[in-house]
Write a structure and sequence with these properties.
about 350 residues; mainly alpha; 3-stranded antiparallel β-sheet; about 45% helix
C-alpha cells in the first residue's frame, strides 16, 4: 500500500546492513520540479521504519530530538560550552567520553541506568577516571533535559566504587625535613622545602608568575587544578621567605625563570637533593606533609583548606572569605623548622 503524497517513503537498501530500511520525506522541490528529499533515518525493520515515519509526520522536531545519540549530544554540549567561546574541552573529560564507546551510538531516549552503570563498571582505569566518566554522563544528561531530549537524569544514580586510600604518597618524616634544612644551600632542597611549607602542587610552583608574588606581604597568588585551588592566596612562611626572595627576579615571567615541563621540573628541581640523600618521595608528597603537620598543630580546618585550596562542597567559596592572609601566615609559621 502506497503512502499518501507527501507522507514520505521507505526503501530497503541492498547489501548486508545493520539498518537496511531508509526513511525519506520530500521537503521541497527544485526549480526544475525535482523533489528535495530529507533522510529521516535508517532502521533495522520495516515496522520500525514505519513507526518512525508516522512519528516524524506527527512532530518533526520531537522526532529529531528522539534520534539524537549520546555522541550527538556530547558534540552539541562541548560546542556550546567550550568550542564556541574559544576554549578547549578538558582532556580529562575527552578521555572519559572515550571510555563510553558502548554508549556513543545509542539514542539518548533509550539509555537507562543499567547502560551507564555497565560502562562505569567496565572501565579498567582509576577511580578518578570513573569519577570523570560520571561527570561527563551528568553533563550530557543535564544538557539533554534542558533541551527536551530526555526527561530523567539517570547519570545521577550511577554508583562509583569505594576509593581506597592510596599508599603511593607518603609524608616527609621529621628526620627527612631536618636533612633538607641541613642541605638548604642546594636549590632542589629549597624547592622541596617550599613545597612542604606552602602545600603547593608541583604544577603550582612551575606556573607561579612573578607578578603574583608579593614579597613584602608574604603571599603568592596561584594554584592549579580545582576551582578552590586556582588563584588562591598561598602564604610564604618566615622560614622559606629567603628562598622565595632568592628565586624572585622581576625580569622573569615565572618564579623559576621560565615555564617548564613537569619532567624538567622534577629532574632538575626536585629529585637531585633527594637522590643525593637517598630519600624516596614523589613531588606531591610535600602537599600531604603540609596538611598533616598543620592538622597535628590543631590549626582550624577552614584555615588548612584555605591554604591548600580544598573545595568544600557544602559551603562553597564563602568558606574562605573570612580566612585572611594573616590567618594563613600564622598557621604556616607554626610549622617546625630547622633553619640553622
Amino acid at each position: 500500500m502506497r503512502n499518501a503524497n507527501g507522507f514520505g517513503s521507505i526503501s530497503k537498501l541492498s547489501g548486508n546492513r545493520r539498518n537496511p530500511f531508509m526513511v525519506r520525506k520530500t521537503v521541497g522541490y527544485k526549480l526544475n520540479g525535482q523533489p528535495i528529499s530529507k533522510i529521516i533515518g535508517y532502521f533495522k525493520t520495516r515496522k520500525e521504519a514505519t513507526i518512525a515515519l508516522v512519528d516524524y509526520n506527527k512532530d518533526p522536531k520531537a522526532f529529531e530530538l528522539s534520534q539524537l545519540t549520546f555522541k550527538d549530544v556530547w558534540k552539541m554540549y562541548t560546542k556550546q560550552t567550550y568550542i564556541d567561546i574559544g576554549k578547549a574541552t578538558p582532556r580529562s573529560y575527552s578521555a572519559a567520553f572515550n571510555w563510553c564507546t558502548d554508549l556513543h551510538d545509542m539514542k539518548m531516549s533509550t539509555i537507562k541506568l543499567m547502560h551507564l552503570q555497565e560502562t562505569v563498571n567496565a572501565c579498567t582505569a582509576s577511580v578518578s577516571t570513573k569519577k570523570n566518566i560520571k561527570i561527563v554522563m551528568n553533563q550530557i544528561f543535564k544538557y539533554s533535559i534542558g533541551n527536551d531530549i530526555v526527561s530523567t537524569n539517570y547519570a545521577e544514580l550511577v554508583k562509583l566504587p569505594t576509593e581506597l586510600k592510596s599508599d603511593l604518597h607518603k609524608e616527609f618524616t621529621t628526620d627527612e625535613i631536618k636533612l633538607l634544612w641541613h642541605n638548604k644551600s642546594e636549590l632542589s632542597a629549597k624547592i622541596c622545602l617550599i613545597l612542604i611549607y606552602t602545600g603547593m602542587r608541583p604544577g603550582s610552583i612551575i606556573s607561579m608568575e612573578t607578578k603574583n608574588i608579593h614579597i613584602d606581604e608574604q603571599y603568592m597568588i596561584g594554584g592549579v587544578k580545582t576551582a578552590g585551588g586556582k588563584n588562591r592566596v598561598i602564604p610564604i612562611a618566615d622560614c622559606i621567605l629567603p628562598f622565595i626572595k632568592e628565586l624572585y627576579n622581576p625580569s622573569n615571567e615565572f618564579l623559576l625563570g621560565s615555564r617548564m615541563s613537569y619532567d624538567t621540573f622534577t629532574k632538575n628541581y626536585f629529585y637531585p637533593v633527594l637522590n643525593e640523600l637517598n630519600i624516596t618521595h614523589l613531588p606531591h608528597d610535600g602537599r600531604g606533609t603540609c596538611e598533616s603537620i598543620l592538622d597535628r598543630l590543631h590549626v582550624q580546618r577552614s584555615v588548612i583548606d584555605a591554604i591548600l585550596g580544598h573545595v568544600q562542597k557544602s559551603v562553597g567559596e564563602k568558606y574562605y572569605r573570612n580566612v585572611t592572609v594573616a590567618d594563613r601566615l600564622e598557621a604556616v609559621n607554626k610549622m617546625p623548622h630547622w633553619d640553622t
